[in-house]
Amino acid sequence: MSKVSLKIEFGGGLELLFDNQRSYRIDVPSEVPIDNSTDEESLSTKEKKPVDVKYLIHHMRDHMLKERVELFMEKDTVRPGILVLINDTDWELEGEGDYKLKSGDEIVFISTLHGG
Amino acid sequence: MAPRSCALCQKAKAMLKRPKTGQQICRDCFFYVFETEVHNTITEAQLFNPGDRVAIGASGGKDSTVLAYVMKTLNERYQYGLELFLLSIDEGITGYRDDSLETVKRNQEQYNMPLKILSYDELYGWTMDAIVSQVGRKNNCTFCGVFRRQALDRGAAMLNVDHIVTGHNADDIAETVLMNIMRGDIARLGRCTSICTQGEDTIRRSKPFKYAYEKEIVMYAYFKKLDYFSTECIYSPDAYRGHARAFLKDLEAARPSAIIDIIHSGEAFEIKEEVKATQKVQQTCQRCGYMSSNPLCKACTLLEGLERGMANSGITDRARKKLDAGGPAPDNIRTIPFFSRMNSGGNPAIAVEQPS
Predict the structure, then answer these.
(1) From A92, A110, A114, residue closest to B222, measured CB to CB
(2) What positions does the entry give for ATP binding (chain B) (predicted)?
(3) Using 50, 70 and 90 to split pLDDT, how confident is the model at B346?
(4) Chain B residue nearest residue A71, CA to CA
(5) Which end of chain B is more exposed for a tag (fewer CB within 10 A), N or C?
């Protein structure tokens, strides 16, 4: 299965939910289940789509997040108040969760909810 | 999606969508419009006079860090003629404030501004760690809020400044409007949207980021690579505000103008004269000279409760009655040094003496 290599960064206190590590390099499959399930079985059996940011968020929840999922996700996306940048551009300009990931992409998640 | 070019310069690639306007703009245009809007806020409200000494309330967090950077930039660009200081309050919270103060100390060097740190321990004889060990984690935010407000004024008096600016942003103000409506706090609802407030003998206080969205402040800090500290206070955050905040963020996701709309709603409330008449008149605290709506200010009441081992007496009326029934305050309890302010001369305006 081919892979997409990404760099993930956290800011604004969000790293606290991810083992207090600010930067990760991860690989995700280039083809992923349409329903964003991330377990091995779904990955091999379910209908596929090219990997996008929405899948990445689910992958992070299922495989990287250490605590308190409600502070990271709400419904099917990141919680309001978390900013996402794709290669330093506001994800609202890149199609948000529908952005198709490619190797070398750098995704930054910043919480605006922590302290003034 | 194909990359779009900036709606303002039409040249560079757009890198952010402004929540206020929906405009898609590039990094440099964003810096320019963000700074210019703050400048416009400052000039329209006539916040400063040339030669003013201004303290920036600095916590090391994103808002005050960006505020210090932008104040320095605008002061130089538009020749405001201000003398800027950083003023930090050390609440005495191990593992939280001590770390964030390190950020402020770096800001002092990066921005080349004098820094004054005033601690609760120095002013009140109690750190928040000590207060929490006595009162628990239920009402500790009340102590911290009341003590911080007065500490900022007193720190500002020590610096002999004319003005304090704080990093309160549009999201903070919209949250406060919502909270005051939900609590029916008419007096505060009327005040909370003012860009500048001034008590009788306290120092002017204003919010240059009144119309700046939190998203833009965070983006500004990110693009400028500003050094800020972001950890939640270890003594559970203000739960009520947390709910207002989450609600506001949901509204913003559905309609980004919601934040500015709520501020406008708060500003548009008109309070009937007969309601205003029931509000308490400002006076000065008999014990410490700070502005107060009662003979004894809130900070003195809370401190007396702590000193007499009846910490809740500042929180509820019932507990206060119990305290009063215990007789007048003993002479040997710790009190806050008397507050007085001088407008002339370079000497610190209050005597700082450690009660024995």
Answers:
(1) A110
(2) 57-59, 63, 89, 167, 172
(3) very low
(4) B246
(5) C
Residue B136's domain is classified under what CATH number? 3.40.50.620
The pLDDT of residue B344? 40
User: Do B314 and B206 belong to one domain?
Assistant: no
B168 and B193 in one domain?
A: yes
B167 annotated ligand binder? yes
Q: What string of H, E and C letters represents the secondary structure of chain B? A: CCCCECCCCCCCECCEECCCCCCEECHHHHHHHHHHHHHHHHHHCCCCCCCCEEEEECCCCHHHHHHHHHHHHHHHHCCCCCEEEEEEEECCCCCCHHHHHHHHHHHHHHHCCCEEEEEHHHHHCCCHHHHHHHHCCCCHHHHHHHHHHHHHHHHHHHHCCCEEECCCCHHHHHHHHHHHHHHCCHHHHHHHCCCEECCCCCCEEECCCCCCCHHHHHHHHHHHCCCCCCCCCCCCCCHHHHHHHHHHHHHHHHCCCHHHHHHHHHHHCCCCHHHHHCCCCCEECCCCCCEECCCCCHHHHHHHHHHCCCHHHHCCHHHHHHHHHCCCCCCCCCCCCCCCCCCCCCCCCCCCCCCC
Say whether both B203 and B308 belong to one domain: no
Are A12 and B230 an interchain contact pair (Cβ–Cβ within 8 Å)?
yes
Q: Please state, rounded to an integer, the average pLDDT across all residues of chain A.
A: 92
Residue B6 within a domain:
no
If you measure CA to CA, which chain A residue comes closest to B238? Answer: A115
Does the beta-carbon distance from B16 to A93 stay under 8 Å?
yes
**Mind listing the domains of chain A with CATH numbers?**
3-111 (3.10.20.30)
Same domain, B94 and B212: yes
User: Does residue B207 share a domain with residue B101?
Assistant: yes
For A16, the closest chain B residue by CA position comes to B231
Q: What tens digit of pLDDT does each residue of B215-224 get?
A: 999 999 999 9
Is the same domain home to B300 and B266? no
- A99 lies within 8 A of chain B by CB: yes
Q: Do B215 and A112 touch (CB under 8 A)?
A: yes
CB of A9 less than 8 A from some CB of B: no
Residue B39 counted as domain residue = no
Check CB contact of B254 with chain A, cutoff 8 Å.
Answer: no
Q: Is the residue at B13 inside a domain?
A: no
Instruction: Tell whether B184 and B315 lie within a shared domain.
Output: no
Q: Which residue of A has its CA nearest to B64?
A: A116
Q: Tell me: is residue B129 an annotated ligand-binding position.
A: no
Domain total of chain B:
2
**Closest residue to A94, CB basis, from B1, B62, B245:** B1
